[in-house]
Amino acid sequence: MSILHQLLQGTHSVKICAITGMGGIGKTELAIQYAQNHQETYPGGICWFNPQYQDIPNQIIDLARQVGLNPPNNLNDLQKVRWYWQHWQHKGNVLVIFDDVKDYKQIQQCLPPLASQFRVLLTTRKKLLTPSERLELNVLTLDTALALLETLIYKERIRAELKYAQALCKKLGYLPLGLELIGRYLTRKKSLSLAEMLRLLHEKGLEQKALKKPNSESDMTAHLGVASAFDLSWQELTSEAQELAYFLSIFDLVAIPFHIIEQFFKEKDSEELEDIRDDELLYLHLIQEEQDNKYKLHELIREFLHDKLVELEKDNDIQKYISVKLIKVTVSNPCCILDILKLKLLDWKFTDSILLIPAVDLGWQLRNAIQAWIESIGQLANLVFHLRKDGTIPTLGIRIVNLLITDYRTKEPCGYMDYIQTGWYFGNCDVDDVVEFTPEIEELFADKNRDGTQIAEKLFADGWNHFQRSPFNPQTSWAWRWTLNLISTSISELLKQRKIPVNPGLLSLEAAWYAALHLTSRRNYSYYIPISINEIEGLLTQIRTSQFSPMIQHCINQLRIEIDFFKEKGETHLSLPSSYQNFKNSQYISSELLLKYTEEVFQGAIKGYLQIVNRYFSKFVPSLQFASLFPARLVGVVVSSPSTVSATWFWEPLPIGSESYAEFKISDNFVFQDDARFKLAVNQIRSLRPNSFKYPLLKNQSESPLSHSWLGSNPVTELVYQWLWEDLKNIFSLERELSRAGFPYWR
């Protein structure tokens, strides 16, 4: 109140001031208290008008008649209003209050002359006037919210259930109207505990009777319940603003970055969407602006919008509305879904009892999420999901169970937890896309003291496979977290085992060469002499690929690809590049051999890395710091001496559309951070590739003494997979370091 008084009467006072804020924040109550506590400040009188009850000119004319002002008869209503203000008979400052202003133009022509003795105070839900002429009210703090409750309920009652009183304040979003309604309701219901009141609010939300204005509360300033107060602002929104408000309500009560919101409204111009946000939702205080272009809903407004959304949806299912939105954005921009999950924007619980929801409905949520990922990530889907050979999703079996959990140390029961059990059907029988497992499936997941062998054999024989049981948290994001966890686990295994399928090239050739050595029993993995393709093909006809480990299967598949590629070129032998052979087979490693080999390895690694990124991870590039660097040139030096060899390198950005490549030279000196070319690369990347801020870093690799194992036995593979791991570990929650596969890499 002191701030308001300072605005109207201070050294830099304004002649007009607006109290603004969301519905139920206490704007009218503040105006009343200010008028009552500062009557001496306004000896010329305090006038109160409400544009919602009668047009303003008639209200002013009625007041003027009551104080004995009689204007000339030839004036119209607006002219009479101006005459009244000019002939106001009481000396001293006058406070003129316009309560609940919806349309500023409605009162603008009726304002008193601001250069005179008058001070004008407006209360409004809208952001009227300039920022210096506004007092924007925020919700209460916890302490002030509890203090408000104590004015309505006995302090002893609050103190006896302080934990529940605090939870009530939080549930109501510290909104004065909600707190006053609840406080008055509890005053009437003396036997109702605060704990029970909180339960009723969770159960019924804004439909709870306590949040509706009763007729008996005639001494309340507010004349509406919470939902009705919000509805006044809702009715003023355009349909486009209502759609944006619906959408915002699907998120949790956290600050939402606006760039994420924009991804769901790609059909709209970003400037148009910002105008809807600013000119309607912010203007009417239906959303709150946070730092860094983020926006948040008040707890009760979000609940109000949820109720509106339920009315809008034909089957009253908000989850379907959310699913449709998430499917659409996943297909177009999977990075957006990753951001949503990372920021926990959809982590609110959609039910308190998951057992009340049919398992098949949950199965469809999961299946729809997988289908969205498949359409989004293309060829990567075949590597990370359990799909049929034609790329379609097999039938999903699902079951929800509530299991007793025991403490692994004491073996004592410590509560119950919900689990989701899933499996996939690859058989030929005609079954629904989603089916609920019968209770016998529990045998598969039973403890070791129970025998599930028979049921397992039967299910596998029938065509079921890939069974999984995982804890179930009924958050709105659950299906997307479940599928992302599956993607992350699969990617982690692909990277650890170095077995992502690729087209011909050095990356492919290293795997193929390993398979060729394995099949031809050349167990010396330092063997680099070309091998006859006829010999290899003869051995390939004698094996079943499935008899080998998954990693060797990958190498054999790459071997088949490389053999076809070599034969197309007219080659009769499978061989590594000449730079490999010369370096590995030479008794004396000259500087020239070392340079050509090093450059060939890095050149092959760049091509292999870009091939994998473009083929499998192209839609994730905006979130990949290393991939965002390209096109780029790798600039490096090789420093060699009889006792040691070292390579130092960094990256320079190239014009978009250029081909990336590696460029090394032999030098007597290392590259240091004060090197002019390195400094230039730093500045270029910061300006041209801001998403690659962690590059350019100077990288270094050394070996002492120099040997044929320089850069490793499969150097291209190791570089490519290390780059991939660094890029993917943050967005897919991989382990901190890529585990070494040892030597050989594939077993």
Structural features, described:
With 747 residues, this protein is of the alpha/beta class. It is 44% helix and 14% strand. The chain has 28 helices and 18 strands. Strands 2-3-4-1-5 form a five-stranded parallel beta sheet, sandwiched between helices. The protein has a four-stranded mixed beta sheet with strand order 11-9-10-12. Strand 7 and strand 8 form a beta hairpin. The chain is elongated. The termini are far apart. 34% of the residues are buried. The model has no long low-confidence stretch (mean pLDDT 90).
The major beta sheet can be summarized as: 5 strands, parallel
Strand content: 5-15%
Average pLDDT over all residues = 90
> Given the structure, what is the number of helices?
28
**Oligomer description:** single chain
In the predicted model, the low-confidence regions spanning at least 5 consecutive residues are none
Helical content stands at 40-55%
Strands ordered across the widest β-sheet: 2-3-4-1-5
Coarse morphology:
elongated
Q: Care to count the β-strands?
A: 18
Class computed from helices, strands and strand pairing: alpha/beta
Amino- and carboxy-terminal Cα gap = 76 Å
Taking all Cα atoms into account, the compactness measure Rg is: 36 Å
